[in-house]
Amino acid sequence: MTENVDAQASFAFEGNWRSYAPIAFTNLFLTIVTLGVYRFWATARTRRYLWANTRFIDDWLEWTGTGKELFFGFLMVVLLIGLPFLFLQFGAQALLLQGHTALAGILTMVAGFTIFYFTGVARFRALRYRLSRTWWHGIRGGSDDRGFGYGLQYMWRTLVAYLPFGLLIPWSMMTLWNRRMNRMSFGSEPFVAHGRARPLMKRFLLFYLAPILFVLLAVATAGTFGGYLGGVWVTSNFPPILRIIAFLVISVGVYVLLGLIALAYYAAFLREAIDNLTLGGLKFSFEASTDDWLALFFVDVALVVGTLGIGAIFLEYRHWKFFITHMGAAGEIYTDQLMQSQTRTDRHGEGLLDAFDVGAF
User: Fold this and answer.
1) Which of 42, 157, 261, 300 is 20 to 30 A distant from 227 in Cα terms?
2) Which UniProt keywords apply (predicted)?
């Protein structure tokens, strides 16, 4: 059967915060009572709700992952990677105390590069796991690539990105996205990603050149607050209270402005990446503008601050709804020809993801 897909109607989210609230508060309570252990089952429970309320074309998504998978995945990482890493760290400190500075430095570098490498592996395997546990029309996704080669790609592309003063960061981010997605599939169809870094450069340069603004703000701060600027003491006739207020406003403004510019860059990155992603006869799109991201961000802040942190339990719900609401797919899909994926499925979950606290995307 051939489905002609309209981008506007391809994705829909039917959940609401009222039906999600009992899940969120129960997850919070049980996570506190179990000193954090329940969070793996909380994650699985949340995803089951979010996936079950997400429609793609003519059927609902299904999450088949379990909290047990996530928990044992985390334990495996702690045993296989965490303990050796601690051994390297304590070994380096012991060697340093004994005067073996060079050897201690080598062990420290080995520990650092180990974490660096497995951060890349974690990103790959987290996406692979999530696709393998996402079902639609009785078909799942996945990848036969185990991500170890991607870890090396992540290392050298990230290092190269920072060599020319960080100017190749957009290239690194986009090529890593393409490489990761091009190793994934859903059913018998592979994903094809060919995002470009060039369209991102204007916003990235805005973020990159922001420190110049910081210099100007430093001049303004010195003029109002008083202090050394270029070896010269700058005095001010403003009352002390006004100097303090001006200093705080400028300092906070710098961080807020830089964060907003970074958000604008990420919005452009995600649009470029998803707009150049295909699956068989489907072409995906992402319509969230910078204004949409800013609205999401400020409401998130208001929700968390206004509830003294309790509102954070709704952030995952809000972010998933935002993502699905702005997703689109257009083209044709042959559901009767879409075969089940033959890719390998892991028996454990996102242990590396939890250990290194990184996102799948």
Assistant:
1) 261
2) Membrane, Transmembrane, Transmembrane helix
